[in-house]
Design brief:
The chain is α/β, with parallel strands linked by helices. It has helices at 4-23, 28-37, 54-65, 80-93, 105-111, 122-138, 179-188; strands at 44-47, 70-73, 98-101, 143-145, 162-165, 168-171. The structure holds iron/sulfur cluster (SF4).
């Protein structure tokens, strides 16, 4: 029997594979430009945490199209410094369309009325604070950029540049960048650092699940320290 859903799925995977083959060795700036020039139903957006490395992708995006949508998940548990940094980068880069998504308040009252769910069930907490809002944020978009890199290790060590992710294309323009590339880009473009970086935070998410990293540790070692969790879920499931 003809299965229209399977056909659409296969077509998306084929398109992602063709784009990946074409862009796998391209410079990140060229990847972003090429994807923005493609036709995607619903258009293209970028998801940003406004963390320590976020300014690189956002700067590249702003150089090409500062009106492109930037989707930001405010979990309600972020450091105030992250919100200040978001505003600082918005002004510095001239981004005109930052869209903020928050957890559904009814979900929060039902699942986490005292904001302590993270202490007993991080997957459930990330589920309603990050995964569900991201699903709403991406609804209707045909493709999205994110800032993951292979040098982060763990589930990210084999990242393609372009991949199929559920009903849309996911693009990792910085997959090939390493820590030195990031640092050099900040210096070359005089980009401001996240205010907590100078206090030893190498990767920054929610306050309750982020700790400082020690010299020699993986950049993401301070996330969910002491547990096996390495991803919030937005990159593990079909959102
Ligand atoms: S990172 Fe921690 S506080 Fe933030 S949504 Fe996930 S479990 Fe909850």
């Amino acid at each position: 029997m003809f299965d229209i859903a399977a056909t659409a799925d296969d077509a998306l995977k084929e398109r992602a594979a063709a784009l990946d083959a074409r862009l796998t060795d391209a410079a990140p700036h060229d990847v972003i430009a090429a994807i923005l020039a493609e036709k995607f139903d619903g258009g293209v957006g970028a998801v940003s945490s406004f963390g320590t490395e976020s300014a690189v992708l956002l700067h590249m995006l702003a150089e090409i199209d500062r009106t492109a949508p930037v989707l930001f998940l405010d979990t309600g548990m972020l450091f105030p410094e992250t919100l200040e940094y978001r505003d600082q980068l918005q002004e510095r880069l001239g981004l005109t369309d930052i869209r903020v998504f928050t957890p559904d308040e009814a979900d929060r009252l039902r699942l986490d009325p005292d904001n302590m769910l993270w202490a007993s069930d991080t997957d459930a907490c990330c589920g309603f604070r990050k995964v569900l809002p991201l699903g709403r944020a991406l609804d209707g978009l045909g493709a999205w950029f994110n800032g993951r890199k292979r040098y982060h290790g763990e589930t990210r060590s084999e990242l393609p540049v372009v991949e199929a992710d559920g009903p849309r294309i996911k693009v990792n323009p910085l997959a090939n960048f390493n820590a030195q590339d990031i640092q050099s880009y900040f210096v070359r473009h005089h980009l401001p650092l996240h205010p907590l970086q100078k206090h030893g935070f190498a990767s920054i998410g929610c306050m309750s699940c982020t700790s400082r990293t020690m010299p020699g540790e993986n950049v993401r070692a301070g996330r969910w320290r002491g547990s096996n969790k390495t991803e919030c879920g937005i990159h593990l499931s079909e959102v």
